[in-house]
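Example record

One chain of 401 residues, shown exactly as stored in the release files.
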Amino acid sequence: MNNKVFLRLWLLFVVLTTFTFAAKVKYATWKEGVTFESYLKKYNISEDILNSLDKEDQGLISEVGNRHKYYELIASNGVLLQSLIPIGEELQAHLFRTHKGYKVEIIPIAYQKDTYVTLLSIEKSANLDIITKVKNRRLAREFERLLKHSVNFRGIQKNDKIAIVYDQKMRLGKPLGVPDIKVAMLESHGKKNYVFKHSDGKYYNENGKVLVQKYMRMPLKHVRITSPFTTRRYHPILKRWKAHHGTDFGAKRGTPILSAADGKVIFAGWKGGYGKVTKVRHVDGYVTLYAHQSRIKVKVGEHVSTGQVIGYIGSTGRSTGPHLHFGLYKNGRAINPMRMVKMSSGGLRGKEKKAFLNRKRKYTKIINQIFKANMPSYVWNTVQENSVSPKMKTYYKNRGW
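Predicted structure tokens for this chain:
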């Protein structure tokens, strides 16, 4: 991490942990429908502070979404001193007050990442048991999403076994973002059902057949990419953190925008720096976003088909010219939309198949070791001993961190 950014985050931590006698730390969930602009109005802060950001960051800050946990430091007189508002899993908007007024910047989210294990016997259902015993709702959803393509969850019996190995980001003792499952196994009716994550980012069963099919198409008939997708990255020249959570396509004003897949319109209207936006929810929790439109053709609640015209290219919002910003999200996490279109539905072959089989043997051995050692599951919503000092343990628990 850049030394200046690290120093800034450390100073923020000192403020949060040292001066709470004069200010209150608030930990809350971002409400649905609230934009960053409306958040500024709540505290009588001028939107002009957004002009200090470039066009990409102004659009990025429009991705502040519901269900994200954010922090506020509020003075005893009710004045907002600073806040940390996540934008996806990697970056956050840091809004803070200075003697000259408020400022906003995009900085990385400070988190830890480690590998965790879940091993349990089913008592009620796979989903409910993971939630109650492991206390990680997103792990329960992700496990069910991956296994439902090869397992009939209605046929699961009591005492069937679950084993999961996954990577999880952690922020102040709480799970952050969607767990990255490496291997999962459900033993039911004497049969072991596996799902393995390969190096290509896709999930396969033990025979090397892809489990989660991707079937999205391009949102335009003629594609000209002007800006690709990028995640958290420190720009070596600009000396600050940059990201672009989508793919930009250049096109003439009025060019028809097409739905990338079948789905339901969940948003159609103005969204901050993104201007006129349409959001469509698809299967398996995927959501596509189409920004900077000149005109929206669909309404909230409407069902759309793959290739259906849902709007037209424009330059609304904070944009330098007519183009389409095409975003793709999974459980609120921005992912590269270009990895989702024109995907092969077949299995692995040749060297890739050999590499997968090697990975399969490695993960199968790990699962067997977990069962042999009867390894306990890591339970979330607790303070991790090796990452939090005893002195701060009570402090964090009292504040629900």
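Notes: Residues 16-21, 383-389 have pLDDT under 50 and may be disordered.
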